[in-house]
Each structure stands twice: as C-alpha cells, then as structure tokens.
Amino acid sequence: xxxxxxxxxxxxxxxxxxxxxxxxxxxxxxxxxxxxxxxxxxxxxxxxxxxxxxxxxxxxxxxxxxxxxxxxxxxxxxxxxxxxxxxxxxxxxxxxxxxxxxxxxxxxxxxxxxxxxxxxxxxxxxxxxxxxxxxxxxxxxxxxxxxxxxxxxxxxxxxxxxxxxxxxxxxxxxxxxxxxxxxxxxxxxxxxxxxxxx
Length: 198
Fold this sequence. Notes:
The relative contact order is 0.14. The two termini are 37 Å apart. This protein has 198 residues and is mostly helical. The longest helix has 28 residues, at 170-197. 85% of the residues lie in helices and 0% in strands. The protein has 7 helices and no strands.
C-alpha cells in the first residue's frame, strides 16, 4: 500500500466519522420532539390521576404518540429527500426507535386493557424507562456518542429507583428524566449542529 492510498483511506475514514457525528446532531430534533410530547403526555396523565379524571386517559395516552409519529414521518421524509442517502447506521437507529416505540405502545395497550390484573400498571413507567434506555444505548453505540449510552444506563437506574419510591412520585421522576435525558441532549445536539454549520 502506498503512502498516498493510505492517506486517501484515512481521509475517507475521517469523513465517515464526521458524517456519523453530524447524524447524531441531526437526531437532536427527534429527541426534543419525543421528549416534549412524552413530557406533556405524562404530565397531563399525572394531573388527571391527581384530580381523579382518568376518563380522558386513553385520549392522552394515544393522542400524543400519534401526533409524534406524524411529525416524525414528515421530518424523516424531508431529511431523506435532502440527503438522498440513508446509511446502514441510520437504518439501525430508525429500526431501534421504531421497535422501542412499538414496544412502549404495546406495553401501554396491555397496561390499559389489563388494568391492575396484569400488574403492569404499577411498573409501567419503569418498563418504559428500560425500553428508552435500550434505545439510547443502541443509538449511542451506532453513532459512537458515549453520552447517549451513558444516558441509557441512567434510564435503567431510574427504572429501579421508580420501584423504590412511593408511586405518586414515579411520574415526577419520569418527567425529570425525560427533560434531562432526552430534551437536554436533543438541545445540545442541535446547538452543536448549528455551531458546525456556521
């Protein structure tokens, strides 16, 4: 291998790493979107529970994810038209979050249909936290951003904590985690993206 071909290969690898980092920053919008929607839905659900107005719970639980899916598909379609190339890493991360979202939706349905007979209701947010942790760890590994993987582990720890604290604090802890571990990293990614584009 000649020196020139080695330099060319190193340049290609460096460009690929740079593109991967750019993808992480582009995904910040999705973390902000889903973080905010989850924050609002969980907060609305908790307020409904405190006020004993749970008859609206099915609408709360399903309206925000449907809105999120529509917005995500529009943003994703716009991004794919702009970039014209979807990498394997992009496909893995998309499939991961699709699976996580479908898992959370399924868990929500089981929790709602089974009421307390399944026992899922009391640990619902812990299960959701575990699923989000899995998504964050895979995203962090795929995009080589260790912060996301660390946040994934934090989600798992919070899942355990939520089972130790009194149940009335579970949603509060979950909302804090959504803010700190989804919205904030999304905002940071967007700030870095805007800084790199200048």
